[in-house]
Design goal:
alpha/beta, seven-stranded mixed sheet
Length: about 140
């Protein structure tokens, strides 16, 4: 599925729609360059889960856990991971197999640890279509 967004509000709304449909045990892998709107999408997703507390990128902590929504929300940012084995130190398996929803930014860095089924979300800019334009691609992956 490909969706065009022309504003941060539209990107947030799409994230919210995805969060409203999310089910326990699902894993989402979020890809995009710095500044494309990954955090905006993630905030919308969290809102769709009913999370009201502020959501931020866990860049320096690797993991943020939000428990107040209809499902626990595990937000990973693995950009700073130097070795996929580091994920085991934070209990990655427990989260990935847990009752919540996992959101993993920069998942390509830990690809060998991903489950056989997950959802990929790519957010891409196209400046020829405007500064705020984003193409958001959502696809199911089975390995």
């Amino acid at each position: 599925m490909k969706i065009e967004s022309n504003s941060a509000e539209e990107t947030f709304a799409l994230g919210k729609q995805c969060g409203e449909k999310a089910a326990a045990g699902q894993v989402y892998c979020l890809y995009g360059d710095l500044g494309v709107g990954k955090t905006v999408f993630t905030k919308g997703f969290a809102a769709g889960l009913g999370i009201k507390e502020p959501v931020s990128s866990p860049t320096f902590t690797i993991l943020q856990v939000y428990d107040e929504g209809r499902l626990p929300f595990y937000h990973f940012d693995v950009y700073r991971i130097s070795d996929p084995e580091e994920m085991y130190e934070i209990g990655f398996e427990e989260y990935i197999e847990g009752e919540g929803v996992c959101f993993i930014e920069w998942a390509n860095l830990i690809e060998e640890l991903l489950p056989p089924q997950y959802t990929e979300i790519h957010i891409d800019k196209d400046l020829s279509k405007g500064f705020d334009y984003r193409l958001i691609t959502v696809e199911e992956v089975q390995r």
